[in-house]
Task: inverse folding
């Protein structure tokens, strides 16, 4: 690989597209004749206003975001949204959550601080290796929203079909699948994504929220920063935003547009994941841990027969230039995160390496 880089299979922060990094490098000392780096720039300047406006416009175009949705750039990562969602959207104080893995579990625990939470379906019985049937959930009439994590980064499960919310607002954490495929925004009341998985540097979330869900009657004790209205009314600049992350994300949006958009990205991601899954399905040493229908195209957990062998594989892959394949500490095993920016060659090379390892260690 160019620049002596490794294939980085990290779950996040994760790989960025190389042409984007090169552009950022080229603009580092003097952004487009402004005489300064974006890091040094006032967020109130005309130059930065254009950066954020273009980022929003490009994202709207990529996803086909309808006009009645706001796009907000908020700090605090995806984790702050676990609290902001209930703080802002629990009007009746009631919400339904689907428990499909580590990240929805965290969101549930946080939401319970703010109101009545119904866990209407769970896949805990088989260690979150599938998505439960959500075609006929028991949803109380006064539910404010139904919440899902659309791609469980740690357990590697993804929804093949959205839940039947019976007319209630759907809220989705798309952190680890954002912009990996086309998305029909109007199926949701709100979508949010921490950007360090599939888009840019850590420390920012992008929230896409239907305007009628933005309230001006929140409990006055809700911090101003935690009200969606604060961000919506101030163009995501009530206070100093994460200018650097907005700039880098904007570059990635332009890169995706140039590539041909989310349908093209989806096709690439499907081809890429197939290389890994075909290998896991044919291997005697390595096994995927998720039911086929719900396999993530982004995060692929897999195991050998023992923790010792898992550790041996992790060490061997790292030494060979395939980094961060150790599974999350809560589940063990291995995990290959192959977001948008991971080239297919990276997955092919990893599979070749694992095949060789299997042959030599059978
Ligand atoms: C990483 C991740 C989060 C947490 O993101 P932070 O930016 O670290 O707060 C939440 N949800 C999902 C699905 C994630 O993958």
Result:
């Amino acid at each position: 690989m160019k620049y002596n880089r490794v294939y980085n299979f990290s779950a996040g922060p994760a790989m960025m597209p190389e042409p984007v990094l090169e552009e950022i490098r080229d603009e580092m000392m003097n952004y487009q004749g402004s005489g300064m780096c974006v890091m040094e720039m006032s967020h109130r300047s005309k130059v930065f206003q254009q950066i954020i406006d273009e980022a929003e416009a490009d994202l709207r175009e990529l996803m086909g975001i309808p006009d009645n949705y706001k796009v907000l750039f908020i700090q605090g990562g995806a984790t702050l949204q676990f609290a902001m969602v209930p703080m802002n959207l629990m009007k009746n104080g009631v919400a339904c959550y689907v428990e499909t893995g580590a990240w929805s579990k965290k969101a549930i625990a946080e939401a319970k601080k703010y109101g009545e939470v119904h866990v209407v379906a769970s896949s805990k019985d088989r260690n979150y290796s599938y998505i439960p049937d959500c075609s006929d959930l028991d949803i109380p009439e006064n539910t404010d929203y139904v919440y899902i994590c659309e791609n469980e980064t740690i357990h590697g499960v993804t929804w093949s079909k959205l839940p039947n919310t019976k007319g209630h607002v759907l809220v989705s954490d798309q952190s680890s699948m954002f912009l990996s495929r086309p998305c029909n925004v109007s199926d949701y009341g709100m979508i949010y994504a921490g950007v360090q998985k599939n888009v840019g540097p850590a420390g920012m979330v992008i929230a896409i929220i239907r305007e009628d869900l933005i309230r001006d009657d929140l409990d006055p004790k809700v911090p101003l920063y935690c009200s969606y209205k604060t961000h919506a009314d101030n163009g995501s600049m009530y206070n100093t935003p994460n200018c650097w992350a907005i700039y880098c994300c904007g570059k990635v949006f332009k890169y995706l547009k140039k590539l041909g958009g989310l349908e093209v990205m989806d096709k690439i991601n499907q081809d890429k994941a197939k290389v890994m899954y075909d290998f896991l399905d044919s291997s005697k040493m390595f096994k995927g841990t998720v039911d086929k229908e719900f396999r993530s195209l982004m995060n692929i957990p897999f195991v050998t027969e023992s923790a010792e062998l898992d550790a041996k594989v992790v060490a061997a892959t790292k030494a060979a230039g395939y980094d961060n394949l150790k599974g999350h500490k809560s589940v063990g095993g291995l995990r290959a995160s192959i977001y948008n920016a991971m080239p297919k060659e990276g997955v092919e090379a990893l599979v070749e390496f694992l095949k060789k390892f299997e042959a030599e260690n059978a």
